[in-house]
Amino acid sequence: MKALILAAGVSRRLYPYTYSLPKCLLEVEGKPIIHYQLEALNELGINEITIIVGYYRETLISNLKKNFPDLNFKFLINHHYFETNTAYSIYVGKAELNSNHILMNADVIYPRELLKKIFYSEYENALAIDIKPCGREEVKVIDGSEHRIVAIGKELIEKNCLGEFIGVAKLSKNFVINFLKSIEQLIKAGGKNDYFEAAIQPLLNEFRVNYVDVSEFNCLEIDFIEDLKLARELFKEK
């Protein structure tokens, strides 16, 4: 099992906090967001980690090499980070997606137990879902019974949705191969600014993709200043 982390974005919605810092290095309880993820991966024995970088990449690379010297990083650059989105970052990393993978966005904070639940789940392809009412901003999923996802995306009708996909997934090698084909088709069709979930949607009829309920854990995607403040409150040491 390997890991791919998407960490290229500019995060304008978090200005001024991200004027000169990549979002994943913002600190929550004295620790950068991405450190929570890397500690969880390390505990599971996953040390082959590809990170797609872009915005202030030198700062990020230096930080991770210093703080995680035992992890085997490969840093790939999305040079178009200002005008692209996560689908294009996946495209940049396509040569490394050749096995079972943990895929995650670098701006999600969660405890180690959440990743363990995904990793040890019985499903070959599992997405971490925070079961809750959702708004327009969240990437949402629809449950087709037996924990199978039948639709994913931001544009789904909120009342029909199970909850939010928090950007953490376990994917089988077979799924990854077809996911990359879907990514390439999306990019060629002009989808450089799409989220990678747009390339998962066409595969849901062909492949079984299940969800794992992670609503028992404190987990949060950091998109806005309000999210950062909430994360700092949720993860405050008691």
Topology:
Layout: E1 2-7, E2 27-28, E3 31-32, H1 33-43, E4 48-53, H2 57-67, E5 72-77, H3 86-92, E6 101-105, E7 108-109, H4 112-119, E8 126-131, E9 140-143, E10 149-153, E11 163-171, H5 173-188, H6 197-200, E12 210-213, E13 220-221, H7 225-234
Parallel strand pairs: 1-4, 1-6, 4-5, 8-12
Antiparallel strand pairs: 2-3, 6-11, 7-13, 8-11, 9-10, 9-11
Helix pairs in contact: 1-4, 3-5
N-to-C series of helices and strands? EEEHEHEHEEHEEEEHHEEH
- Helices, by number, come to 7
Q: How many domains comprise the coordinates?
A: 1
Distance between the termini: 34 Å
State the CATH superfamily name.
Spore Coat Polysaccharide Biosynthesis Protein SpsA, Chain A
Apparent shape: globular
Number of strands: 13
Offer a quick outline of the entry.
By secondary structure, this protein is α/β, with parallel strands linked by helices. Helices cover 28% and strands 25% of the residues. Strands 1, 4, 5, 6, 8, 9, 10, 11 and 12 form a 9-stranded mixed beta sheet that branches.
What can you see in these coordinates?
The structure is a single chain. With 238 residues, the chain is α/β, with parallel strands linked by helices. It has one domain (2-234): Spore Coat Polysaccharide Biosynthesis Protein SpsA, Chain A (Alpha-Beta Complex). 28% of the residues lie in helices and 25% in strands. It is built from seven helices and 13 strands. It has helices at residues 33-43, 57-67, 86-92, 112-119, 173-188, 197-200, 225-234; strands at 2-7, 27-28, 31-32, 48-53, 72-77, 101-105, 108-109, 126-131, 140-143, 149-153, 163-171, 210-213, 220-221. Helix 1 packs across helix 4 (112-119) and helix 3 (86-92) crosses helix 5 (173-188). The longest helix has 16 residues, at 173-188. The chain is globular and about 45 Å long. The mean pLDDT is 93.
